[in-house]
Every structure is written in C-alpha cells, then in structure tokens.
TrEMBL record:
<dbReference type="GO" id="GO:0016020">
    <property type="term" value="C:membrane"/>
</dbReference>
<keyword id="KW-0812">Transmembrane</keyword>
<dbReference type="InterPro" id="IPR036259">
    <property type="entry name" value="MFS_trans_sf"/>
</dbReference>
<dbReference type="GO" id="GO:0022857">
    <property type="term" value="F:transmembrane transporter activity"/>
</dbReference>
<feature type="transmembrane region" description="Helical">
    <location>
        <begin position="487"/>
        <end position="511"/>
    </location>
</feature>
<feature type="transmembrane region" description="Helical">
    <location>
        <begin position="264"/>
        <end position="285"/>
    </location>
</feature>
<protein>
    <recommendedName>
        <fullName>Major facilitator superfamily (MFS) profile domain-containing protein</fullName>
    </recommendedName>
</protein>
<dbReference type="InterPro" id="IPR018456">
    <property type="entry name" value="PTR2_symporter_CS"/>
</dbReference>
<feature type="transmembrane region" description="Helical">
    <location>
        <begin position="437"/>
        <end position="460"/>
    </location>
</feature>
<feature type="transmembrane region" description="Helical">
    <location>
        <begin position="183"/>
        <end position="207"/>
    </location>
</feature>
<dbReference type="GO" id="GO:0006857">
    <property type="term" value="P:oligopeptide transport"/>
</dbReference>
<feature type="transmembrane region" description="Helical">
    <location>
        <begin position="238"/>
        <end position="258"/>
    </location>
</feature>
<keyword id="KW-1133">Transmembrane helix</keyword>
<dbReference type="InterPro" id="IPR000109">
    <property type="entry name" value="POT_fam"/>
</dbReference>
<feature type="transmembrane region" description="Helical">
    <location>
        <begin position="551"/>
        <end position="574"/>
    </location>
</feature>
<keyword id="KW-0472">Membrane</keyword>
<feature type="transmembrane region" description="Helical">
    <location>
        <begin position="523"/>
        <end position="545"/>
    </location>
</feature>
Length: 607
C-alpha cells in the first residue's frame, strides 16, 4: 500500500516559494499580493485576481484522443439511432432488408422486426442501461490492472466483434426469422455494450491528462498580459471533446438513409468499418500520449477514509445523522494529524491531503446523483421523439434522421459558448461555475420536454386517425397517413436538449476529471456515467408509460421533474459552488507521496 506521507507545502500553511531563491520562507508578515499561487509559474495572488484568465492551447495528443471518441461515437450512434424503427416497425411491403421501395420513400418508414413501440423502447432502454453500467468495469480495470491505453485497445476488439455479429443478424436471411434476428440483436448489444462502456470510461480522463500546463502569465500580441488557466483549459478541453462526440453522431446521419434506401445490414456495416479507426489511431499515437500507468486503485483506502470519518455519526434520528454528516468537522477523525503516532490506526497510511481529496471526490459524486433525472428527460430524444416524428409529414425525410439535430445544434453552439459566451461572462466578472452551469442545463432540458408535450398534443388533434397512435395511422394499403405538420417542427426539443447538454453533461465530464484523485479518475468518470444507467433503469420501470397515447403526460411529467431536481440541486450545492476555487487546488501540488502516480511525462515523446 502506498504511503501517502505529504512532503509538499500544504495550502493551509502560510509558506511560499520565491522564484529567485527557490526556497520556502515564512510569509506571515508579507503582503498578500506577493504570495505566489500554488503550482504556478510565477503568478502572484494579485495577478491571479486582477488579470484576465484565458484557456491554453491543447496539445496534439488531445486532438488524437478526440478523434478516437469521434470514430467510436459515429459507430455507436450509427447503430443505436436506427434501433427504434428496426425493432418497432415491420418490413415495408415487398422488402426483405428493411428498405422502403422508391415509389413510397416520401413518407415511408424503414423497419424490420415489427415488435412494436413497447418492445422497441424496452430493448433500447436496456441497451443504454448496459452501455453505461460497463464503464465501471472498464474504469476499475484501467486504474488497477491495464492502464487506460491498454484497456481501450483490448475492448476495441470486443466492441468490433459485437458490431460484426449485429451486421450478420440484419441480413435478409436473418430477417426472414424476426424472432431469431431479435435474439441476435440482443446478443450483439451485450458484446458491443461491454466494449463501448469500457472505452467510454477511459477516453474521457485520457484526454484530460494530455494537458500538463501550469498557471502562468503570457503577453498577447496586443500587449495585454493574461493568465493561462489550467482550469479554463480543462473546461475548453471537454467542450471540444463533447463536440467530437457530436461530430461522430452527425456522421451517423447516413445510417437513416442507408436503412431506408439499402436495408439494415448495409446501415450497420458502415459504422462497423468506421470503428476500425479506433485501434488504428490509438496505436498511431502510442509513443506520444501522456499515460498514467496502473498503480493499483485507492478505492480501498477511500472506503477506509469514509469509514473513519463517519464512525459515530450515525443515529436512529435522521435529522441528527444529517447534521453530523454535514458538519464542517466531519472528516477530522480520518485525518492522521489528529492522532498521535502511538494512537494512529495501523491501516491509516494516508495523509491529510488525501483525506481532502476523498472529501472532494465524495462531494463530486453527490453532485452526479442528481443526473438520472436529467437523463430521463434526455432519453425521450433517443427514441420516443422518433416515434413522434413518424406521425408527422416527412416529405422524404427519414423520421429517425431528425434526432441528429441534437448533435448538430451542439456542434454549432459549442464554439459560440467557448469563444464568445463564456469569455464575455468572465469579462463581466460573472463566475459561471460548474454548479451554476449544471443548474441551467436542468432548466433547458425541462423546457425541451414542455415543447415536446405541446407538439404531441397538436399531433393527436391533427392525425387522420384519432386514436392517439398517429405513428401507426395507415391507409388500406398499409402506407402512412401522417398528421399535416412538417416533421422539422420537432427540431425544438432536440436543440433545447443540446443546449442543456452543453451546460450540464459537458460540465459533469469536467467535474469528474478535476475532482478525482489521479488513481481514481477512470472510476469517478465511470460513476458519473453510471447515472445514465440508473436513469435507464428508472425508465425501464416506466415502460408502460412510454406508450404513444401517453406521450403528452410523459413529456410533461419529465419537464416538471427536471425543474424540481434542478432547483433542489442548486440549493443543495450552493455552498459547494462558492468553494469551487479551493476545491480545484486540492492535490495539484507535486506531492512526494504520489510520485509513483504521476503520468509518464517523457517530454521528448510529447507532440
């Protein structure tokens, strides 16, 4: 077990290191303006407080990791985006592949298995649940055994095998037996989910690790002196990482047309070929990446810290337990400095800073616990809104194509936020901290559900079949009879959810990376992603309510739930929000106790 003895200069002490003499001196009598910021390159407290903060440039290796995520997400969305029609709708008249004949493509809907809306929803929900459970396994294996790079490479092979199985089960020969094809789909979902989840847990922290810059001053060509901020650089990194995710989703637009025009085996084959880029790009950048080797996880020590801290805090009185758990001195009993050498427990091999890191990690995980409500609302654009679109006037647009407006809006809006909105807010002195951003994200996703509920109400009213099942309204020849509403009207919820994701989902990735100890980053990121699995489990329990005739009430309920959760979230973490700057400084110094945890930073190998 690693000895976490701290040999650095704790933030709590009034010590500084001067650049001239390179030694520690007492600063009790020194002016605060002369104190250098911890882990900086000569930035004083006064400069930190008064100069404008800007993000640093990202290294090339970060862009390589972003490309890996782009290719993997193209593959993921290139399959899951067309699951709704593939499972729900039957083969179109005369089709053996799921494709719609040329004469009826204007409002025709591709299909294959014909299992209906409820079965389609159940399988798609299980797929989401599984894909966001497996990151926990990938995170633990990366932190303890393989490292992030090797874990991504190993599970790339697993994921590719799953995609090949999916292609095989969607051939005309397989679709001749819809029940057998559905079992093949479920098996491929299990294999692909295992691979995709393990990759997902590790790509996110891997891109964050590529930047190793410190707080420093820089003079711009205009003559302005600014602060190059690692915190803003991490924020920008995850903005563009999320853009890569959504560029991949936009690339998957082709899947809807391929399924409608050429059938499902072709539609699934294209993303399978795209996925081969993942191991290729990872192998190409192997000698350039900044990699954190596996050193064993600190999960056991973390559990022990929480156990020592909570000992004696529990009571049969819930109010008393809550007060004790929220007390400012909650973590004191886990700090070695509060024990004499003779009384210190033998298993207490960490230092006080490690306890501070655990405290920060626990607080971050508590933040993530609100996200299942956010993802419940998001899940509606992942399938149910495709059913909504199927009851509208398509005019040659595949109904499951519309959901790509979500990633398109994200890709368009991210540069606006990163280059204009956020810098403008900083210039005005507004600290748009992670907690505030997440709160606003909840508000936007709730607004999206209100829009969807109102739209669905009008579709019910205008559908030729007044049975509250407009997507199933057909004529005597089994061809669709849509409501006279242009399908592009459904764009609103996709765009509003996209804005909500920029505020909340991107911030959760940033929060998970910045608040986790070095050896727990993959696990903490996986925990943040696990909230999607919890959301899917809740959604699965609500399967009977995900029927088309109940959509208005379903969307409206999720809107109310998102807004209530958002306000409770902000109220719960208001104090944590004010301590954001202090939390980001915990564990950023070069502590000797963590020397063996630092990434391999051979600068001659860096790009």
């Amino acid at each position: 077990m690693t000895d976490h003895t701290d040999k650095s200069v704790p933030l709590a002490l009034a010590h500084v290191t001067t650049l001239d003499e390179k030694k520690v001196v007492e600063t009790e009598s020194a002016h605060t303006d002369d104190v250098y910021m911890p882990n900086s390159e000569g930035v004083t407290q006064h400069e930190f407080d008064t100069l404008r903060h800007v993000a640093d440039r990202l290294p090339l290796t970060a862009w390589l990791v972003a490309f890996v995520e782009f290719a993997e997400r193209w593959t993921y969305y290139g399959t899951t985006n067309i699951y709704s029609n593939y499972i729900r709708a039957p083969l179109p008249p005369g089709s053996v592949t799921g494709a719609v004949d040329w004469a009826h493509r204007a409002d025709g809907v591709a299909g294959a298995l014909g299992k209906g809306q409820i079965t389609s929803f159940s399988i798609r929900t299980f797929n989401t649940f599984w894909v966001y459970c497996t990151p926990l396994l990938g995170g633990i294996l990366a932190d303890t055994v393989f490292g992030r790079y090797n874990t991504i490479m190993i599970f790339s092979v697993v994921c590719l095998a799953g995609h090949l199985i999916l292609v095989g089960t969607a051939t005309p020969q397989s679709l001749a037996n819809p029940t057998g094809a559905m079992y093949g789909l479920i098996f491929s979902i299990l294999i692909m989910g295992l691979g995709a989840g393990a990759i997902k847990a590790n790509v996110s922290p891997l891109i964050g690790e590529q930047y190793k810059g410190k707080l420093r001053k820089e003079t711009l060509p205009s003559g302005e002196v600014v602060i190059k901020s690692p915190a803003l650089t991490v924020q920008s990194t995850y903005m563009w990482f999320y853009a890569a995710i959504n560029f991949g989703s936009i690339g998957a637009i082709s899947a809807s047309f391929l399924a409608r025009d050429n059938g499902y085996w072709v539609a699934f084959l294209v993303p399978t070929c795209i996925f081969t880029l993942v191991p290729i790009v990872m192998a190409f950048g192997r000698k350039y990446y900044v990699l954190t080797p596996p050193r064993g996880s600190v999960i056991l020590d973390t559990v022990r810290v929480v156990r020592y801290a909570s000992k004696g805090k529990w009571s049969l009185n819930p109010a008393a337990t809550y007060r004790r758990l929220k007390a400012p001195d909650f973590w004191n009993s886990a700090m070695p400095s509060n024990y004499t050498p003779e009384n210190r427990p033998k298993k207490m091999l960490w230092d006080d800073d490690f306890v501070a890191e655990v405290s920060r990690t626990v607080k971050a995980c508590l933040v993530f616990l609100y996200f299942p409500v956010f993802w419940l609302a998001y899940s509606q654009i992942d399938g149910n809104l495709a059913t909504v679109a199927a009851g509208m006037k398509l005019n040659g647009t595949p109904n499951d194509l519309i959901q790509n407006l979500n990633p398109i809006s994200i890709v368009v809006i991210i540069p606006i936020f990163d280059y204009f909105l956020y810098p403008w807010l900083r210039k005005l002195g507004i600290k748009f901290t992670p907690i505030k951003r997440i709160f606003v994200g909840f508000l936007f996703v709730g607004l999206a559900m209100v829009y969807a509920a109102v739209l669905q109400h009008y579709i019910y009213e205008m559908s030729p079949c007044h049975d509250y099942l407009p997507s199933e309204c057909v004529d005597a020849a089994e061809y669709p009879l849509p409501a006279n509403i242009n399908v592009w009207v459904v764009a609103g919820p996709y765009i509003l959810v996209g804005i909500g994701e920029i505020f909340a989902s991107i911030t959760s990735l940033e929060y998970a990376f910045t608040k986790a100890p070095v050896r727990m980053k993959s696990v903490v990121v996986a925990f943040s992603q696990f909230q999607v699995a919890i959301s899917s489990a809740l959604n699965f329990a609500l399967t009977p309510l995900n029927a088309e005739n109940l959509f208005v009430w379903l969307f409206g309920s999720f809107a109310i739930a998102a807004w209530i959760a958002g306000f409770i979230f902000f109220w719960s973490f208001y104090e944590l929000d004010k301590a954001e700057g202090q939390l980001n400084q915990i564990g950023v110094g070069e502590r000797a106790g963590y020397a063996d945890e630092q990434p391999e930073t051979n600068t001659e190998k860096r790009v």
